[in-house]
Description:
722 residues, Multidrug efflux transporter AcrB transmembrane fold, Alpha-Beta Plaits, 4-stranded antiparallel beta sheet, elongated
Amino acid sequence: xxxxxxxxxxxxxxxxxxxxxxxxxxxxxxxxxxxxxxxxxxxxxxxxxxxxxxxxxxxxxxxxxxxxxxxxxxxxxxxxxxxxxxxxxxxxxxxxxxxxxxxxxxxxxxxxxxxxxxxxxxxxxxxxxxxxxxxxxxxxxxxxxxxxxxxxxxxxxxxxxxxxxxxxxxxxxxxxxxxxxxxxxxxxxxxxxxxxxxxxxxxxxxxxxxxxxxxxxxxxxxxxxxxxxxxxxxxxxxxxxxxxxxxxxxxxxxxxxxxxxxxxxxxxxxxxxxxxxxxxxxxxxxxxxxxxxxxxxxxxxxxxxxxxxxxxxxxxxxxxxxxxxxxxxxxxxxxxxxxxxxxxxxxxxxxxxxxxxxxxxxxxxxxxxxxxxxxxxxxxxxxxxxxxxxxxxxxxxxxxxxxxxxxxxxxxxxxxxxxxxxxxxxxxxxxxxxxxxxxxxxxxxxxxxxxxxxxxxxxxxxxxxxxxxxxxxxxxxxxxxxxxxxxxxxxxxxxxxxxxxxxxxxxxxxxxxxxxxxxxxxxxxxxxxxxxxxxxxxxxxxxxxxxxxxxxxxxxxxxxxxxxxxxxxxxxxxxxxxxxxxxxxxxxxxxxxxxxxxxxxxxxxxxxxxxxxxxxxxxxxxxxxxxxxxxxxxxxxxxxxxxxxxxxxxxxxxxxxxxxxxxxxxxxxxxxxxxxxxxxxxxxxxxxxxxxxxxxxxxxxxxxxxxxxxxxxxxxxxxxxx
Length: 722
């Protein structure tokens, strides 16, 4: 075991050195040739990951993406699929609304309706097609019921094809469950592509402003592109291997890949400028900078991936996909920063030290100047008690609206705002039979018992609150299928309450409906999320302790992260619940938001704390260490936060509710963390803690010393004295 661990540590330690010796950083006689080799290598990597990863943007959005595979609803839907194959249950229909320009009895109106009916009927594996008129005569409804026995992917493909063909007919709207999911997939794909097309040019302009030059602005963008498409490539391989992935899982990748690439590039460039000021040799300065920031970057990438790993424990495909895809993206960003970014910076040589506004911040002369990240922390250090009281009070005030947060599953009609399917839903409810939009419960009774027991169950179903009609039971090989029509709309809170009551009738009664699926999903999320978040917090604490060597500083970072999350959720209540008037948040979106915010916010904390700890180990007093740490990493944090907000804010205008809420929540969290928390609360808290910042239990310190002993011999942990 000891030999194996030594071998692993040796590979981790020596492999990067071997790679960098193979491609020297502007050393030797053939510098021009080496520069060409580097350019070819960088461009080749970029083109390769784009070609390999871009096909993943063709992933679909499925109705099973948010279904708990271990739940009672999942079993019920399997029984429903069996009933549909036998023709004992009717699949979810597709509805087409035809706007009538004249009387429903006119020749023109009937001709339009017949044309739409022929298009719907010509759709592959479409069963019965029927039509009816609205009460006011303004709309005609054409309903197509698919044939039974089709897979969900086949029905979605047919619905997408039908939407495409009906889009060529004027004033025709397409709705229904399959059409809504198909439209959702199209919208998510448009969001991802527009995010790429809009965010990259905007971020380039922001980076040109930050660096005051065009050369270095390309470095984080290229790193972000490699991280994004590299993660998509792995996602594609896993999808081809049979793992269910949704296109929704790729939405956070744009912001995470670009944000982390900017973080890591700024850390490396800032450290390079400091080293270059001491040693005017570019190659030596770049090598020293890489050695110093490598532990921070590696710990950061590992912390994000490990903190997102608990999402894969959720028996919900969307959660697993987000955890895997975002974790892989973080690892790609870290690897790109350690191996590809130094190659790009090696091409620029001395120009790195003189290009950009950030050079003013990282140069030694900036120590005599007063900029934001020196003045504000210095004030917090002089008045730590007052600043901490005011800042914590402000954050708690932002978090106060959480007490009025309403948690309830989001129904299918709320998933995609301002969509065609939602418009169809509204018209059906307003101008046609309201039962068309009411929840349909497919009940399956299994287990022992005869006709008497069946009659008792049917009677109990009819008496349940929220049930309007119970249709005759149908036998299917030892299982009875009972269809019940609810009074609530599809997926509403009232329908969810009805689903819970129906399940309480008998342990052998399985309920298949949109409402029951939401109940199971939200219940699973609420049950698993406390353990998941606890594991993520513990993992972040352990990794931060391994990097910093302090016991209380990582604990403080975790507590500040929790305070940021609470403040973010409070602001979201104000924005969405009070201002926009939504009925409530889904537990799933809240847990996804917290799972993404926690490692990203902790990432910024690691950058700041690592520089403060480094200054302290070099003998600086606490106040000086805090000031110097924030002065050097503050610009990195603020610039990286700005870039991340620009990359993510584009999705705030999305019509997909989940995407919109995640984007707004991430932007709010980063803004709070990079302003109130990092500029004021961190220096105030560390000043108040004083020498206790560096306290560590003796046995824990001995364990860490043993873990890093081998690395210290090789110089991989510079200035570390555990």
